[in-house]
Amino acid sequence: MNEVIRNLLERRTIRHYKEKQIAEEELQWILQAGLYASTAGGRQSPVMLVCQDKEINEQLGRINRAAFGQANSDGIHFVSQAQKSIADDDAIRSGFYGAPTVVTLFAPSSWLYGVNDCTSVAVNMTLAAWSLGIGSCYVSRAEETFASELGRKLMREAGIEEHYMAHVCLCLGYPDGETGVAKPRKEGRIKFVR
Ligand SMILES: Cc1cc2nc3c(=O)[nH]c(=O)nc-3n(C[C@H](O)[C@H](O)[C@H](O)COP(=O)(O)O)c2cc1C
Fold this sequence. Notes:
Structural class: alpha+beta
Number of strands: 4
Strand order of the largest sheet: 1-2-4-3
Strand content: 5-15%
CATH topology: NADH Oxidase
Order of helices and strands: HHEHEHEHHE
Helix content: 25-40%
Bound molecules: flavin mononucleotide
Number of helices: 6
CATH superfamily: NADH Oxidase
Shape: globular
């Protein structure tokens, strides 16, 4: 197995982060990996907003959490036992899990492949992050989070035009505690025509 494949197989979503901010050089590599992601038509539609303001990330994370609703909390079907998600535990108050860095990906709302492009960028970034020892979590409900008054204010201040829509929030930080292991892969998900 080569190093790239190993990184792909070993990457896990991280939701417990150390307080320490990620190193600037590592952040720049992660952003660069995002810039080089595949995008529909090669249009490079996504724009990134990097937020390292603790208070703002906490406020946006709470807005994000509120947009989710209740956790499943049946105590059996965990998203992750080691790195519990808001779907696992109602006591988690921020959908950003206290991550020191959150990168939100926006694309023009009129662009048919905006969600796909932002996802493509996010995936590149999660893998680059893992290869550098940095944990990440792909977070949904970016649309609702940035439709808030605070979200719209941040967009204005950052010069992100109103017709852009947030599609993914990517949490980044050094992993804290147990990483967890991948769930067993479901059978029968690969079909061949040969
Ligand atoms: C499209 C998509 C949306 C996701 N949304 C969330 C989310 O809102 N909150 C969260 O904690 N994790 C979210 N995740 C992370 C998944 O829960 C995680 O990838 C999954 O449980 C598998 O774990 P792994 O990444 O460690 O393999 C999302 C992942 C994807 C691909």
